[in-house]
Design brief:
- There is one protein chain.
- The chain has 7 helices and 7 strands; from the N terminus they run αβαβαβαβαβαβαβ.
- By secondary structure, it is of the alpha/beta class.
- The chain has one domain: 3-Layer(aba) Sandwich (Rossmann fold).
- A 7-stranded mixed β-sheet has the order 3-2-1-4-5-7-6, sandwiched between helices.
- Helix 2 packs parallel to helix 3.
- The N and C termini lie far apart (53 Å).
- The relative contact order is 0.16.
- The protein binds S-adenosylmethionine (SAM).
Amino acid sequence: MTQSFIQIESPNYIRAENLAMPADWESIFGNGNPLALEIGCGIGDFIVKTAADSPGTNYIAIDFYNKGCYKTCRRIDSGGLSNVRVLREEARQFITERIPKGSLSAVFINCPDPWPKKKHRKRRLVSRRFVEFLNGYLAPGADFYFATDFDDYGIDVAGMMSGVEGFANQLAPDLYRHEMEAYHLSKYMRKFMAEGKKIYFVHYRKAGTMHEIKA
Ligand SMILES: C[S@@+](CC[C@H](N)C(=O)[O-])C[C@H]1O[C@@H](n2cnc3c(N)ncnc32)[C@H](O)[C@@H]1O
């Protein structure tokens, strides 16, 4: 059965084809606040709470799931948030085309598809290659957050990040934790926790300080 496509009319929804390459996020948000990206926002639980906590940061939420983008926009609109924009986009293509190099202050990836079968593991979004690609778009001092319920994905990413040059583990001496205070739970995190699963939280920071962005 195919799902019907929902037209999204929200003022906070952006069609990437209407943006420059890279996009001028300062003029889109109407200010030069730090710019953060959530990849795979689902139905928006995480980004709506996170953006409400930090009105001084601009958030881009992307997902290639139409209904997820629709629900995320509904929540942003009803919450009256002015610091989130939503796009129905694939992560690698979107970042390459629309994100200025060195501009992101944070990236959040919560419960990405785990591709549990061994032969499908190469389809996983987060790998060393992906992080090295992403690094070019991160500002000095930017945060990289990753969370999954999937044991070997969590352990792999936590271990892999410790070997990526220029990133410092923010959870040391642990490579990952099963709880992270002040980090909002997403729909999938709550679902997996209700099933008795543990979430693997990973938090690394790129070397440097934020003010270098504008230097
Ligand atoms: C398992 S769901 C998790 C949703 C949400 N982050 C949460 O934790 O509740 C993974 C989401 O990532 C999206 N996704 C997966 N790969 C993506 C990619 N390459 N670019 C954009 N979105 C992606 C899927 O469409 C899906 O909505």
